[in-house]
Every structure is written in structure tokens, then in C-alpha cells.
Design brief:
This protein has two domains: about 100 residues, Dihydrofolate Reductase, subunit A (3-Layer(aba) Sandwich); about 120 residues, no CATH class. It is built from five helices and nine strands; from the N terminus they run βαβαββαβαβαβββ. A nine-stranded mixed beta sheet has the order 5-4-3-2-6-1-7-9-8, with helices on both faces. Strand 8 and strand 9 form a beta hairpin. The chain is globular and about 55 Å long. The model has no long low-confidence stretch (mean pLDDT about 95).
Length: about 230
């Protein structure tokens, strides 16, 4: 396989939603804890999220003043700041909108903290943003001119950084993109004991029909369940 092995690891409601107010309900607290515990147990080389999820979970809306990073034209070539970090946070951010204050994730959870950041972008990103990433020490790769080519991105992640196993952790749009390309090898679900609102996002946005086999099931605390499926 010329790409990483992909495990889609998510917490869902009983009716398969991954975003919404249900995540903040008291009866979901144990399910949230179980989700992070399983994340650590899976021990992947990297975790990957879309721009919105990364912003909500890690950057908190931070964005640089790109005027400070004015520069000449930067060639659209992959930039590898740390090829041997061993643990990576892969941000799919095609237009370059995320703001990082460090080259590593800073988080209380050891399942995320100290992961070296890799931005996956399209070539239309600005020179100022590329200069900003370089000065922050963030690695980046290109996978398409205007639209992301997941096949190219995944091949580069394995070849350039040695990523063998990667957790796909949302949001719904990114999960759906991986599913439509057939790039989801496993699904790991922590199911919370609640149902969600009608407008909350599903596990896979515009997903396709695909078959999986149940390989593990475990009842967690407070009526939550961990399900693991393999393709």
C-alpha cells in the first residue's frame, strides 16, 4: 500500500451524528473520556482533521497578520521541517487559513500533544502564508492546484514522513471525502447514549455504500459503547 492505513476514529450519537450540542451533555462525559482513551490506545503515527475541526480543537481562531510575512514568490514545493518527528498532526486546509503559534500541537492529552504539524494545501495558497508556516516551523505539502487530491496527499505523507497508520478524526466533510475515495480501512466508533438534533452532521458527509466487519465491541462507562469495524 502506497499510503497510510486509515482508521476513522470518531465519537457519535446513537443516530450517527458527530457534531452538535449533544457532545456537551452530562451523559456524554464518559463517552468523551472513552473516545480519548481509545485514541491513545490506537497509537497511530498521525491524526488528521479538516480545517474547521483543527480550528475548533487546537488553533482557537488564531490567525497571523500576513502583512508581517510579505515575501517574494515561493516555489510550490513540499516543505519538510521535521521528517523524523515520529508523531504528526495532519491539517487538511487547502487555502491556508489556520493559524499556528508553534510547529507542534499543544494539548493536555498525550494522544495529541507534541504532534508535529503538517499542512496539506492546494497551490493557490498565498506566498505570505507559506512564509509564515516556514518561520513557524510547520511542514507543508501540496496536493492539487485548486482542489485537494487525497491520493497524492496520502502518498506524500507516507513517503516523506513515514506515516504508516493515521487516525481520521473529522469533521464530516473530510470523513466523507476519504470514504468516497475508498481510503477508510477501519472505523472506530465510541457511541454516546444519546440521540442528536436533525441538523447535526453525520459521520460521513455524502458518504457511499461500503461493507465492514465488526472486529471488536466493548461496553464502556455510562452506557457508551466502542465499536471497531474493518473493511
Amino acid at each position: 500500500m502506497n499510503r497510510p492505513y486509515i482508521i476513522c476514529h470518531m465519537m457519535t450519537s446513537i443516530d450517527g451524528k458527530v457534531t452538535g450540542d449533544f457532545l456537551n451533555r452530562p451523559e456524554c462525559e464518559e463517552a468523551v473520556n472513552a473516545y480519548y482513551e481509545v485514541n491513545r490506545q490506537l497509537s497511530a503515527d498521525a491524526f488528521a482533521c479538516g480545517r474547521v475541526t483543527m480550528e475548533e480543537s487546537f488553533t482557537k481562531g488564531e490567525y497571523p497578520d500576513l502583512y508581517d510575512y510579505a515575501t517574494d514568490r515561493i516555489p510550490r514545493q513540499d516543505y519538510i521541517a521535521n521528517p523524523k518527528a515520529g508523531f504528526y498532526a495532519v491539517a487538511f486546509d487547502r487555502f491556508g487559513r489556520l493559524g499556528w503559534t508553534s510547529s507542534k500541537i499543544k494539548d493536555d492529552d498525550p494522544g495529541y500533544s507534541n504532534a508535529h504539524i503538517i499542512q496539506v494545501m492546494c497551490e493557490v495558497v498565498s506566498d505570505e502564508y507559506l512564509n509564515y508556516l516556514r518561520k513557524t516551523g510547520v511542514s507543508y505539502i501540496f496536493a492539487g492546484e485548486i482542489e485537494l487530491d487525497l491520493s497524492v496527499a496520502l502518498e506524500k505523507l507516507k513517503k516523506l514522513f513515514g506515516i504508516e497508520t493515521m487516525l481520521l478524526e473529522g469533521g464530516s466533510l473530510l470523513n466523507g471525502s476519504f470514504a468516497r475515495e475508498g481510503f477508510v480501512d477501519e472505523i472506530s466508533l465510541v457511541v454516546a447514549p444519546v440521540t442528536a438534533e436533525a441538523d447535526d452532521k453525520p459521520l460521513f458527509d455524502e458518504g457511499i455504500m461500503s461493507s465492514f466487519s465488526l472486529s471488536e465491541v466493548e461496553k464502556m462507562n455510562n452506557s457508551s459503547v466502542w465499536l471497531r469495524y474493518k473493511k
